[in-house]
Amino acid sequence: MHANGPDTVEWLISDDLVPYPEALAFMEARIADIAAGKARECVWLLEHPPLYTAGTSADPVDLVSPDRFDVFETGRGGQYTYHGPGQRVAYVMLNLKRRAQDVRLFVATLEQWIINTLEAHNIRGERREDRVGVWVARPEKGQGVEDKIAAIGIRVRKWVTFHGISLNVEPDLEHYGGIVPCGIAKHGVTSFVDLGYPVTLADVDMTLREEFETLFGPTA
């Protein structure tokens, strides 16, 4: 998945909570510039205020508490998900024409990025063939119990990707109670802190950058 040539991926981190419409506007403008050859590829790390987003497959019955937080329709794949403080969102804007024009490979590489990041912090994240995202087995909760620690939802336009991943570091997991996360009622959600691994967003950001560069190439 490495890009050809010396160009690096721009790496941005926002310290303040970013309103969802503002993030969408930034991505729309940036991917247009990337497609036109006017801007570098970009990864943007941020947090949102508490909100729910509805992907293209969202079922209204999965929005349990429609008045709890703002709900935003979005063009990414997937169903309902939650974003909020303590969750690291990474919006990934890459030109697949420079890499591999294979959306499945791109999603699998995003999953591997998350799995490698978790492994660096002694958490075993796993894929599931029947559902996108990264999962953690919770045998202490019972046989076959597992919780989701990271969600993936992307969109591709003119072979440029946008939207991306969300990784639970220390969000308020109770906020997930207003939706059926990703349409899956039988499993729960977890985070680094919930699993007993207290880390800071800055710690996770460092690992995300290192593991990204291993899979996708250099950043600057």
What would you say this structure looks like, in words?
There is one protein chain. The protein is α/β, with parallel strands linked by helices and 220 residues long. 23% of the residues lie in helices and 30% in strands. The longest helix has 18 residues. It is globular and about 50 Å long. The model has no long low-confidence stretch (mean pLDDT 93).
- The rounded Rg comes to 17 Å
Low-confidence stretches: none
Mean pLDDT: 93
Range of strand content: 25-35%
The total strand number stands at: 11
Q: Helical stretch count? A: 3
Q: Terminal Cα separation, in Å?
A: 18 Å
Q: What's the order of the H and E elements? A: EHEEEEEHEEEEEH
Query: Strand pairing plus helix content: what structural class?
Result: alpha/beta
- Which sheet architecture does the biggest sheet show? 8 strands, mixed
* Overall 3D shape: globular
Helix content: 10-25%
Could you give a quick summary of the protein structure above?
The protein is α/β, with parallel strands linked by helices. The chain has 3 helices and 11 strands, in the order E-H-E-E-E-E-E-H-E-E-E-E-E-H.
